[in-house]
Amino acid sequence: MTQIEFNYKPNSKPTQCYRILRHLKLYKSITDLEALRDYGIRRLSARIHELRKEHTIDDCWIIGENRFGEKTKWKKYIMEGK
């Protein structure tokens, strides 16, 4: 795995934005479900809004089915690597 630089002080508590940014840099994308399941973050769009002030983060709609077989869509946030 590539070493990625993060602005994080070891003796402080990581913020939600830090966790999302780390995830995006490592995995290139994140959805609401991943943010909730992996980090307990319920308002991903709000954190993405904050991160977009300093980072380029794109998004796209994913269309699929829910557990009842009904058509639904959700956002996927994407950060391209350099």
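That was protein one. Protein two is written in the same sequence-then-structure order:
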Amino acid sequence: MVKHSLGPLGPKEKIAAAGLYENMTVTLQDHPGLALRLRYKSVEALAEREMEEMMKKLTPLQRRRFQKRLGNPGDEAEDQGVA
């Protein structure tokens, strides 16, 4: 972001720009109403939405294997119906 929006900068300006960008990002995450008005979509929210869509496409067996890899065994009731 710094390179594309501000042009050539010195080290102090780069640090200040990076800090400002980080502060704006945190503020927009803390105030969802403002973020919605500005049409801001956080990377975390987009990644979470994509992960949910991918999980819906998995079969119960694939979901169970994935949960084991993450270290989360999941619901035992869900495992009972799978042969």
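The chain has six helices and no strands. Keep this in mind for the problem set.
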